[in-house]
Every structure is written in C-alpha cells, then in structure tokens.
Write a structure and sequence with these properties.
Length: 136
C-alpha cells in the first residue's frame, strides 16, 4: 500500500532515524504524541539501552514517542501494536480484525476519545490494507 507523507513527517522520520539508527517504515504525528513503525527486528535499536534513544528523541521533539515493530505476519504485527491481546480473529476477505482483551485493558487500548484505536486502525490500513480492527 502506498503511503503519502508531508514534508514535516519526512523530516520527523529522518531525525528519528538519525537519533536511533532504526529504519522507520511509517509515522503518524498526533498532537503531543509521535507514533513510529520501525522495521522488523529494530525495536530494541530504536529504544536503546535503558530507553536512552527514546528519551533523546522525546527531548529533541518535545513530544511523547511510541514505537511499534513491523512484521510481515499480520497476526504478529497486530500483537506488536496491541500486546494485551488474548485472542485474534482475522477476516482477510472483509479486511477486518476482531481482538479480545481483558476487560481492564480495553479502555487503555481504545484511549481517550478513541485516539489509540484510531492510530492503530490508521497504521493497519496504511501498512496492510486492513479496514477495521475491533476490540472486544
């Protein structure tokens, strides 16, 4: 799937890559939070020992940074986005995913005013073509 990024996002990705050494596959800037998808196997590289690289990046951007690791395997990628998943059902025909989580985790995953789930849905659509992820 083709992703179109504006100049600000491209500059954000470039700076994050210079700070961390990780390859960024996608990025969404949403208010005071920047979300990055890094290439498979580069999560540790992007965070750094003791979180040092993330802390440097957050200081530079003056924003909170959340990093997720990409996987070619859709189920693994979804679990990277939502580690609290207990079960996952992928409907590739309708391009939909249903996930089950523990009740106490549900609000955190959805986020205030649905912010987190909107970001997750955007990444899934942009990276895999999935149209909707539902949390149950």
């Amino acid at each position: 799937m083709k992703i179109t990024l504006d100049n600000n996002v491209i500059q954000t990705i470039d700076l994050f890559q210079k700070i961390t050494g990780a390859t960024v596959m996608d990025c969404i800037v949403n208010g005071s939070i920047i979300y990055f998808i890094v290439a498979k196997g580069q999560y540790g590289l992007s965070v750094g020992k003791g979180g040092i690289k993330i802390k440097q990046a957050e200081k530079k951007f003056k924003k909170t940074i959340k990093v997720f690791e990409y996987s070619d395997n859709l189920e693994i990628f979804v679990k990277n986005l939502i580690p609290e998943i207990q079960s996952i059902k992928i409907n590739e025909i309708n391009k939909e995913i249903d996930v089950r989580v523990r009740s106490p985790d549900r609000a955190k995953i959805i986020g205030k005013e649905g912010r987190n789930i909107k970001i997750i849905n955007q990444f899934l659509n942009r990276m895999t073509g999935i149209k909707e992820l539902r949390v149950r």
